[in-house]
Amino acid sequence: MYAHAGIVLGVMAGVFALARLFKITTELSMLAAAIGGAIAHGGLISPRHIADGAFTYFDVTLIFITATFFMNLLKHAGGVDYIIRGIINRFHRHRLLCLLFLTLVMLVPGALTGSGSVTVLVVGTLVGTVLTYMGISKDRVAAIIFLCAAMSAAAPPINLWAMMAAAGSNMPYVGFFLPLGVISVLGALFSMFFLGWKGTPVQLDKVMAELPEPAQGMAGWKVLLPFVVFFGLVLAGRIWPWTMPTLGLPLMFMIAAAVTVAVSPKRLPIFTVARETVQGLLPLIGVMVVVGILVQIMALSGARGLISLGVVTLPLPVIFAALWLILPFSEGLVQYAAAPLLGVPLILLFNMKGINPIIALAGMAVMFPIGDMLPPTTVVGRATTMAVGFKGSYYRGFVKRCLIPAAFILLLGTLYIIFGNELSFLVAG
Amino acid sequence: MKANREWIIKGIALAVWAGVLVSSGIAFAQHRQYKEAVVLGAGVVDVRTLGDYFEPLKGTTNDCNIYILDSGVPGGTLLIMGAVHAEEPATNLAAQLIVENASATTGRIIVAIHENRSGSTVTRPGDAYPQFFTIETDWGEKKFRMGDRWANPLDSWPDPETYVHYPSGQLLAYMDVRNMNRTWPGRPNGSLAERTSYAFMRLIEEEGVDLTIDLHEAELEYPIIGTIVAHQGALDVAAMVSMMLTAQEFTIGMEISPLALHGLSHREIGDFSDSPCILLEAPEPFLDRVRGVTDEALLLTGQDEFVMKAGEHGLLYWPIDENGWPIDIRVARHVRTIEKITELWTRFHPDEAMVVAGFPTYNEMVELGVGHFFHDPSTVSQDRVAFE
Fold first, then answer.
1. B146: distance to nearest CA of chain A, Å?
2. How close is the nearest chain A Cα to the Cα of B148, in Å?
3. Residues of A in contact with B21 (CB under 8 A)
4. Residue A428 pLDDT level (bands cut at 50, 70, 90)
5. Residue A379 has what pLDDT?
6. Is the CB of residue B297 less than 8 Å from the CB of residue B234?
7. Which domains are seen in chain B, by residue range?
8. A320 near A145, Cβ under 8 Å?
9. CB distance B125–A172 less than 8 Å?
10. Whole-number mean pLDDT of chain B?
11. Which chain B residues touch A58 with a CB distance below 8 Å?
12. In angstroms, rounded to a whole number, what is the distance separating the alpha carbons of residues A145 and B184?
């Protein structure tokens, strides 16, 4: 069994590496790896394994798409411009408050969608512009946008790594709000203030001239109302669970999107936004679908068991010492696939060793997105440098500038795992 | 030229995906619609459906068969529930084996083979379960559906953001709104699993069930394994069964149902009816996350090198060696434990006596295989065959 699973795993790794060598996209490379693994397992497998696997993260993908659609509508309505202009106008003399509110703005899109890319696409350019006019160098601006986007993806309520790992280990995605919230907010604030505290006073006129004008008639309540409706629906489900119809998160996001359209001061191109949303998300949706297929084939062939066994039989000190490197680099290699492949056995191990699995998973779930700037994929990192117009060296400029705050976040994540039990007071609905 | 090449690639990709989807669709439909034949044993006097006890469930996926084994002699009534989690096949096999072979000589036995039938019409995405498994019988192979822990999303979707258990208000995982061992005592207008639990509570009430037994299997990485979990109303019986079986036949533990954990059969059935509930857990290495190749062989033999290795590292709550945990032993543990429970229940509650007959012995089931006790549906009158 060891040899069989080892061969399957080797074939998968080989096919993936070969496909990447030929510049095939990550998701197609993983699909090729899955098919290669299936053939190595025993020739032709039932095609229903492909379909079955593709639906593994169906619900998560639906949430991801609808939440992003909602955020994109809000952006098109001018809500994001309105909020950012409001923050600068009100707090341009107070650097601390300005950075604080910009951090919060950065956290919202990723927290709701689970994707750092969405944060970069929705607010990255605008916040980057403001930061530049606060006297912060481009490499620092890019680093701030990336790290805040990474922390926004890690922030609750939607953390795709935690959701995928929890689903794989039969563990409810419940009780993560505070553990994820505390660590992601700390990580984002540290990144923003460490890299952005030094600078020059805000050049209000120049910023205002460069930021897009929000549509006529936009107001604070029009931005807030869709969020109030969304969180109201979530709360209603908890307050009146037995009378409130079960809507599900995707429909809640669609209702929030409908409210955005209804209160928007200008007519929104709904179908154009929907098309752009799906086109923009296609690579990530592809990854989620293909990761499911890959996991299914790995489970079928014993490769998943081999990885799990390898992980759970490692001594705990080795795991504590190595996770801060393994998790980001595995994310850089296979993106979200890292969560079910490594996250699930680690959760089982921590659970067996008596470490609070929710805190431990929260710690791991903030370490994964740091890897989104690492090779070979570098998805969010590259998107960030493009969004803020950073022209310098990707690794020696941008990545190097991220290192200290990233190390801080990875240290926080590691401490979460080591002191999981001591931090278990954070676990709440 | 380049554009043509792109369209050709897209066309091929579309054709391949269409092929995968059609082929998978057929496989999923065949799995969902497959019917397992059950030969009604001499003890079965009636076959009802769950919808008889709660009309709105009539005709739904979970309108499962309810087999009545009535002695005609006044006594206690025992309810046995199999496949609450349809990925635990020893449970429906044990229940079916009882329906096909057992009878009551005092009191009644009521059996549900697939308590959450919806769960038996789907396997878990990402886990590569086989859709079917076959058991060798004296007359050929008998085919069964493999299922999942949760009801099929085709029957119950979407899940809420968080599942709030009725009536305790306890917050549970969103997908557990489809998990029938988290939805007791149920409610009439809830999710499919909640409605099914509610229907079983009506059955318990209407039939005057005195004791309920809920059958399960568990992974070896899970601490509640190889044990009896009992509601406080059946602690005396459960403790005696555990002691006697462990001393004389095989090791089986005993645990008290936690008071603060809600939705579970062993807690809520006893709290919301006159029937205490006992839950039985058998070891199923197939469910372990560290398992090797996921196939029918592992499901039936329970032999797995990776799980054994995890055991060597002290990561399991139940022993395993190269013999694994074969399905025959797992079914035998359940059937024998049920028989022992009826013996001791009768001793403790003579006015609610449950005397049973026709149960194969533990050794017979292990040595001859459980397939030996399944009867050929083609050799009996069709009115003595039911379908699951």
1. 14
2. 12
3. 51
4. low
5. 77
6. no
7. 34-387 (3.40.630)
8. no
9. no
10. 96
11. 125
12. 48
Mean per-residue pLDDT for A179-183? Answer: 96
CA B355/CA B342 separation, integer angstroms: 7
Distance from CA of B191 to the nearest CA of A (A): 9
Closest-CA residue in chain A for B191?
A246
Rounded to an integer, what distance in angstroms lies between the CA atom of residue A333 and that of residue A343? Answer: 15
| A305/B28 CB distance under 8 A | no
In B53-160, the DSSP E strands lie at 65-70, 77-81, 103-106, 108-112, 132-137, 140-145
What is the maximal distance between C-alpha atoms in chain A? 69
| Helix, strand counts (H, E) of chain B | 9, 16
Predicted-complex ipTM score: 0.94
Give the whole-angstrom CA distance, residue B63 versus residue B189.
16
As a whole number, mean pLDDT of residues A199-221 equals 90
Question: Do the chains contact at B126 and A301, CB–CB below 8 Å?
Answer: no
Question: Above 80 in pLDDT, residue A170?
Answer: no
Question: Strand B277-283 and strand B211-218: pairing?
Answer: parallel
Structure tokens at B10: 């897209």
Do B193 and B185 meet the contact criterion of CB atoms below 8 Å apart?
A: no
Q: Which of A272-276, A289-293, B139-143, B180-184 has the lowest mean pLDDT?
A: A289-293
Q: What does pTM read for this prediction?
A: 0.89
Report the alpha-carbon distance of residue A134 to residue A128 in Å, rounded.
Answer: 10
Contacts of B186 in chain A (CB under 8 A): none
Where does the pLDDT of residue B84 fall: very low under 50, low under 70, confident under 90, or very high at 90 and above?
A: very high
- Listed in order, strand segments (DSSP E) in chain B are 37-39, 44-49, 65-70, 77-81, 103-106, 108-112, 132-137, 140-145, 163-164, 171-172, 211-218, 227-230, 253-256, 277-283, 355-357, 385-387
CA–CA gap between residue A303 and residue B306 (Å, rounded): 11
d(CA A22, CA A31): 14
Q: Which residues of A touch B162 (CB under 8 A)?
A: 174, 237-238, 429
Among the partner residues A53, A169, A237, nearest to B289 by beta-carbon distance: A169
| Burial tier of A1 (Cβ tally within 10 Å: 0-12, 13-18, 19+) | middle
For residue B301, the chain A residues in CB contact (below 8 A) are: none
Of A1, A308, A313, Cβ closest to residue B293: A1
A vs B, Cβ pairs < 8 A, gives 158
* One-letter amino acid for residue B8 of the chain: I
Please report residues of A whose CB lies closer than 8 A to that of B20.
47, 50-51
Distance CA B366, CA B388 (A): 25
Instruction: Report, as an integer, the average pLDDT of B356-369.
Output: 97
Tokens 């190390």 correspond to: A407
In the predicted model, what is the mean pLDDT of residues B110-137? 96
Q: Is B198 helix (H, G, I), strand (E, B) or coil?
A: helix
